[in-house]
Design a protein that fits this description.
12 strands; TIM Barrel; alpha/beta; 12% strand; two-stranded antiparallel ribbon; globular; eight-stranded parallel β-barrel
């Protein structure tokens, strides 16, 4: 018979003090707090990228660029060397084989002269994993873990944590050290389906604990997770890749729903990706990524997130103006890092000219220490266990 634990509302309201024995030990091993004031053992896992040792003028530019192909050409390497962007993000177009991905990561890091430069990827599972089958194993969509949790909470928590650790292991084996996952979005009925199966579910409390379990698993093998899309994309009626979403729900209601997972995770999540969504209760026209009020008053103050903030991609149609103007607006709003996922040297050059080096505050956040990584997992064997657990649903 599946073992269950008390309602997640107990964790929200009073922690695990009333859960005894093995249930409490297992739940605490996943990073749950003993009580509502104790945010548990989840470490501050923001990687040190050799940033603080340098003076501000020589720090990396506060931008993550993409690359158009699986291999960097001479012009691209020269651009990265001269511009010194903070990091690189990989997409399907960049991932053909394990050896090729490792070479690409090495070539970028050699170009910028930082052996631990952040290399990001979108690897959520389901339809959103840029290292795709059949070359790489298929991982379940996050919603599958939410369905398992509804049937068997302990099995759902274990499977989610294992999933984070298995994905982290696979990424680390290829030289990728930052994953743009998990989603902490809470989709609502009638919203655009862009979130859909990418979310752990529609209950903000369940989303919180499963996102935390995923983060804990990923951190345990030395890969940095990014929660997204702060302060929440689940209520958006249009896809921000294609249009500008507006959310006019009262902020007090959002505190109880969309914002809740991000607020609960704010003291432990190292990075968060900001949504290109307008929250009219704070700023009537500007998406959060380019809104000083949304960044400071909503994300930093109201939600309480003090980690690294990275924008969603500036190529998305929710933003207006040139790419250079978008990048400058993101940084001007107080977002630590600009994400520019596409293009080539001709488009990167004006973006680089518009972006400043990392601020003191951003450099300090990036320099928070990363605990030693634990042993990596057997990915195939772990996926077998995850598949068996998901069968319980």
């Amino acid at each position: 018979m599946p073992v269950t634990i008390p309602s997640i509302s107990l964790i929200r309201q009073g922690g695990l003090d009333r859960i005894g024995g093995a249930d409490q030990g297992f739940a605490r091993s996943l990073g749950f707090p003993r009580n509502s004031r104790d945010h548990g053992p989840f470490p501050d896992i923001t990687a040190r990228h050799g940033i603080m040792a340098s003076s501000a003028p020589s720090r990396p530019l506060a931008v993550i660029f993409g690359a158009p192909d699986p291999v960097l050409n001479a012009d691209q390497k020269a651009f990265y060397r001269d511009a010194n962007p903070l990091g690189l993000i990989l997409f399907k177009r960049n991932c053909e084989s394990p050896d090729q991905v490792r070479r690409l990561c090495d070539d970028f890091r050699n170009a910028v002269g930082r052996a631990d430069a952040p290399i990001l990827i979108d690897f959520e599972g389901g339809e959103h994993q840029r290292m795709e089958p059949p070359v790489w194993p298929a991982f379940p969509a996050p919603a599958a873990f939410g369905r398992l949790y509804a049937k068997d909470a302990l099995a759902g928590l274990r499977a989610t944590r294992l999933n984070g650790a298995a994905i982290g292991t696979l990424l680390r084996q290829h030289g990728v050290n930052v994953d743009c996952a998990p989603l902490a979005d809470v989709p609502v009925a009638g919203a655009d389906p862009v979130i859909g199966e990418r979310a752990f579910g529609s209950d903000p409390e369940v989303v919180t604990v499963l996102a935390r379990a995923f983060m804990d698993g990923m951190a345990s093998v030395g890969v940095t997770p990014i929660i997204k899309h702060i302060p929440g994309h689940g209520r958006a009626l249009v896809d921000s890749h294609k249009d500008r979403p507006f959310v006019d729900t009262d902020l007090s209601e959002l505190d109880r729903t969309d914002f809740l997972p991000f607020a609960r995770l704010s003291r432990t999540a190292p990075w968060a990706m900001v949504a290109h969504v307008v929250y009219t209760g704070v700023d009537a026209k500007n998406p959060a990524t380019i809104s000083k009020d949304a960044v400071q008053m909503l994300i930093r103050d109201r939600i309480g997130f003090d980690g690294v903030l990275i924008s969603d991609c500036i190529y998305m149609e929710s933003l207006g103006g040139t790419l250079a103007e978008r990048a400058a607006a993101v940084q001007g709003a107080g977002v630590d890092i600009v994400l520019s996922s596409h293009g080539d040297v001709d488009e990167w050059t004006p973006i680089a000219a518009s972006v400043k080096p990392l601020t003191d505050a951003a450099a300090s956040r990036l320099a928070r220490p990363l605990p030693p990584a634990g042993a990596m997992l057997d990915v195939a064997g772990t996926l077998e266990e995850i598949t068996g657990l998901l069968a319980l649903a």
